[in-house]
Specification:
Shape: elongated
Structural class: alpha+beta
Distance between the termini: 44 Å
Strand content: 15-25%
CATH superfamily of the largest domain: Phosphorylase Kinase, domain 1
Number of domains: 3
């Protein structure tokens, strides 16, 4: 993510956005997009395209290669701006705030959006930025694609998570999905604090609530697949689950194994921190029955 995405966004012109869209579009066919292809897509003169590319390169929004021919490509910094530009045009986002969360495969920013300027979160997926080979192994949505770019993998992850939230909300306690574009999702801000980083006064009550949310999600045909104390938020009213791009359905070949792991992660945390013991098989039976 850019150090000052807001300032960069405001200083990026419509013609610069057009060039970024051209590179994004042509990256489907080229590892490095020839400058002539960019000019054809934009209908700009080659001289102007050169000037725009120089400006974008200064802001580290494009990368240049001249080994075999002059070609360009974008990375996450430009992809963030393209998604943000779409959200602004749709009215989903009016103003961008500070970073409120970061992980190995995502960055989350606070924002305001909509007619009433409600507080929302924008989650930018970073699928494979740290280790793309591992993503191929652990992420079902990449399928059998052999030439999958980091940008496209992130786009698939965001779409998958957005679809999960649309299915789950509001029956299951998850952030409300508001909008989706490219590798980014606009959603309501998760209520409360991470379970891992707070001390709760009624752990049995919270554990019951968490397991009930797992059961509700299962009944809607969704298993989280990576549930732990780090993606469960707790608040005075209950809990809220985040991070759904790796979800699977009960018909998946590894559904029982991954549901068992989700439950085991939760039960192990409550046993370790609050000395609460539950029989995992009994919990499993309650959820799938």
């Amino acid at each position: 993510m850019l150090e000052s995405i807001s300032n960069t966004f405001l200083s990026t012109t419509n013609r610069e956005f057009r060039v970024l869209v051209a590179i994004e579009n042509k990256m489907k066919f080229h590892e490095w997009v020839p400058i002539e292809e960019i000019a054809r897509f934009t209908n700009y003169e080659l001289k102007e395209v050169n000037y725009i590319l120089s400006s974008l390169a200064k802001n580290k929004l494009v990368h240049r290669n001249v080994q075999a021919y002059e070609g360009y490509r974008i990375y996450f910094e430009a992809y963030d701006l393209l998604a943000l530009n779409t959200f602004v045009k749709r009215g989903s986002v009016n103003a961008l705030g500070d970073e409120i969360g970061v992980g190995k495969e995502s960055a989350v920013y606070g924002a305001t959006g909509g007619i009433i300027d409600r507080h929302v979160a924008i989650k930018f997926h970073r699928e494979g930025k740290m280790s793309f080979k591992k993503v191929r192994v652990k992420r079902e949505h990449t399928g059998e694609r052999k030439h999958l770019s980091w940008l496209y993998a992130s786009r698939l992850a965001a779409k998958r998570e957005y679809d999960a939230l649309k299915t789950l909300y509001p029956v299951v306690s998850v952030p409300e999905p508001i909008d989706y574009n490219r590798h980014a999702i606009v959603m309501s801000i998760a209520k409360g604090l991470e379970l891992a980083h707070t001390k709760i006064d009624e752990p049995d009550w919270y554990l019951d609530g968490i397991l009930e949310q797992v059961r509700k999600a299962y009944r809607l045909g969704i298993i989280h697949g990576d549930l732990s104390e780090f993606n469960i938020f707790v608040n005075p009213e209950g809990c809220e689950f985040i991070d759904w791009p790796q979800y699977i359905t009960p018909s998946h070949a590894n559904a029982t194994e991954l549901l068992y792991r989700d439950i085991d992660n939760v039960l192990s945390f409550f046993n370790r921190k609050y000395r609460i013991k539950r029989d995992i098989q009994e919990v499993m039976n309650t959820i799938v029955s």
